[in-house]
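S.,

As promised, the shikimate-3-phosphate run. Input:
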Amino acid sequence: MKIYLIGYMGSGKSTLGRSLAEVLGISWIDLDTEIESRYKISIPDFFRKYGEKEFRNVEHKVLNDISSVPDIVVSTGGGVPCFNNNMELMNRSGVTIYLSATPALILTRIGPYAWKRPLFQQMDGADILEKITAHLKSREMFYQQAQIIIDATNPDIEELKKLILTNPNSING
Ligand code: S3P
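Predicted complex:
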């Protein structure tokens, strides 16, 4: 079974992914961490050096490689569903779960560390909230293509496990 966790930055994809993999007894991978280790560069440095377009190409390549690995939970980067037909690739090869979060929740989660994020360089709190709200709105049409949608506030892992096991796509991959 292959599980893809999708959602905006700060929605908790990595934390939930790690716990979910443990509960399901399969391995876990964080796509950004995989990119950083394969290309030996941090994500912010990658953006600075090669730009977003090249990052999206690399992101797609690594996702495509991982899509043939069986029995894995994949925590994806926030932009993954919105580029290069990645949503279609993920829906075809596994179960997609959208962790839906409000802009306010996202801001509280990423606020103090926003400077680390390539998309929020040189912005302060009010600018960031405005950017998150507009950005999330434009991404929602991709995120909504997920097979399972859950509230990111306080995900119930056992409940999620049931939803996954009854999803027809859980036998794929
Ligand atoms: C991005 C999200 C980040 C990372 C990159 C771009 C985005 O991942 O891939 O900074 O476009 O939303 P996280 O969602 O894991 O923070």
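Residues 43-66 form the longest helix (24 residues). The chain is about 50% helix and 15% strand.

- D.
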